[in-house]
Write a structure and sequence with these properties.
The protein is of the alpha+beta class. The chain has a single domain, classed as STM4215-like, CATH 3.30.2000. The chain has 3 helices and 5 strands. A 5-stranded mixed β-sheet has the order 1-2-3-5-4, covered by helices on one side. The N and C termini lie close together (8 Å).
């Protein structure tokens, strides 16, 4: 398995690009990791990942809590477009989330906020997610 934050990002991206409702609103190339407001919208950017290692057991299992923010950006689509996409993302992530080389024992969206951008043309939403990821070494 790759580093837990990257494993979670990869699993989330695979789930989102495998969900027709999401792809009707966001191009697959615009679902990615990054850290800045995008030039092309609508976009879903995964950022601010953190991993808290939870230890291991006698069978060489490792576990970690992984936190990640999914930033949803829109431009010139009105104030509710980011909310609409956020709901599609949350709905897509309500189903089982396979982690390549490991297991996702717990997953949830812990917080959703819609901060105002200084440029009123942009819509912005942030979904914070939390996962317990487990793998064998």
């Amino acid at each position: 398995m790759i580093e837990p934050t990257l494993a979670l990002q990869t699993a989330i991206r695979a789930k989102l690009i495998g969900t027709a409702a999401v792809l009707q609103r966001v191009d697959a190339d615009n679902i990615r990791s990054g850290s800045t407001r995008p030039d092309n919208t609508p976009t879903i950017i995964m950022a601010n990942g953190s991993t808290s290692l939870h230890g291991h057991d006698y069978t060489s299992q490792r576990a970690a809590w992984v936190n990640l923010d999914l930033h949803i950006w829109t431009k010139d689509e009105g104030p509710d477009a980011a909310k609409e996409i956020a709901f599609l993302v949350q709905s897509a992530l309500d189903k089982r989330l396979p982690i390549e080389g490991g297991y996702c024992d717990s997953f949830k969206v812990t917080r959703t906020v819609f901060p105002r951008d200084p440029d009123p043309a942009f819509g912005h939403g942030v979904l914070s997610v939390e996962a317990l990821v487990r793998w064998i070494v």
